[in-house]
């Protein structure tokens, strides 16, 4: 069976987000922004999982589009946490790089799905 890279990457990313959330709450006493990050960062993988069993090609594309929106929102929260000094530059760069790679993967999948739907 072929490895599902976006499924694996989004799951690993969710684990990192959970750990980052725990760090922010325990060490920075940051509860509001970190909760937003937790919600969007973990929902990416959940939507990728839902897309895996989509009812149609259009449903697959729709679920991946939601995953794309969630990773984009996650990028926003990461940037905000960085700019408000809740994350060090190193912490930000590390997790942000993963998020950017995931959004690129998802965007590529959506483009392919659109092409396949039209043919």
Q: Keywords for this structure?
A:
119 residues; mainly alpha; de novo design (two linked rop proteins); 4 helices
Verbal overview:
85% of the residues lie in helices and 0% in strands. With 119 residues, it is mainly α. The protein has a single domain (5-118), classed as Up-down Bundle (de novo design (two linked rop proteins)). The longest helix has 30 residues, at 89-118. The chain is elongated. The model has no long low-confidence stretch (mean pLDDT 96).
Task: Give a quick account of the main beta sheet: strands, pairing sense, barrel closure.
Answer: none
Q: Into which percent range does the helicity of residues fall?
A: over 70%
* Structural classification: mainly alpha
* Rg estimate, integer Å: 15 Å
Q: Per CATH, which architecture? A: Up-down Bundle
Number of domains: 1
CATH first level? Mainly Alpha
Strand content: under 5%
Fourth CATH level, the homologous superfamily: 23S rRNA-intervening sequence
Tally the beta strands.
Answer: 0
Shape: elongated
Q: Which regions are unreliable across 5 or more consecutive residues at pLDDT < 50?
A: none
- Which fold does the CATH topology refer to? de novo design (two linked rop proteins)
Question: Please, how many helices?
Answer: 4
Question: Mean pLDDT across all residues, rounded?
Answer: 96
Run of helices and strands = HHHH
> What distance lies between the first and last C-alpha atoms, to the nearest angstrom?
25 Å
């Amino acid at each position: 069976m072929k490895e599902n890279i976006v499924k694996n990457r989004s799951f690993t990313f969710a684990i990192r987000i959970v750990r980052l959330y725990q760090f922010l709450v325990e060490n920075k006493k940051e509860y509001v922004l970190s909760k937003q990050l937790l919600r969007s960062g973990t929902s990416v993988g959940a939507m990728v999982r839902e897309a895996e069993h989509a009812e149609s090609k259009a449903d697959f594309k729709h679920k991946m589009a939601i995953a794309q929106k969630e990773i984009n929102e996650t990028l926003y929260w990461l940037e905000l946490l960085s700019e408000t000094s809740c994350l060090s530059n190193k912490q930000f760069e590390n997790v942000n790089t993963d998020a950017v790679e995931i959004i690129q993967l998802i965007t590529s999948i959506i483009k392919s799905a659109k092409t396949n739907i039209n043919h």
